[in-house]
Amino acid sequence: MPPEAEVDEIVDLISDAYAWRILVQTRNEAKSVDALSDACDADPSTIYRRVERLQDADLLTDDQMLDPDGHHYKVYSANLDAVHVYLEEHGFDVDVDRREDPSDRFTRLYEGFK
């Protein structure tokens, strides 16, 4: 289980309508802030704030892209597979399943064969 502060932040984030939409929109395809702004019907400043919070919680990753005209911009991808919430005697337990980077998975699998 993650530390209590992290659990509170994650539960708060996934209950936020804009953060929820950002995660859904970036689940299968990386998107720019402009694309997310259109998809979420929100100002880019609202999207930037949520993106920053999602990245701080390691629920969203970014990649740098290059336009044909030479400008750079970022696209964002969800780094979340599932959040499991369990009601226990002492309160709630939360497990967060993040996506694993393919190179990290290969390393883990390779080391498992040693």
TrEMBL record:
It comes from the Archaea. Gene3D superfamilies: Winged helix-like DNA-binding domain superfamily/Winged helix DNA-binding domain (1.10.10.10). This is ArsR family transcriptional regulator. InterPro entries: WH-like_DNA-bd_sf (IPR036388), WH_DNA-bd_sf (IPR036390). SUPFAM superfamilies: Winged helix' DNA-binding domain (SSF46785).
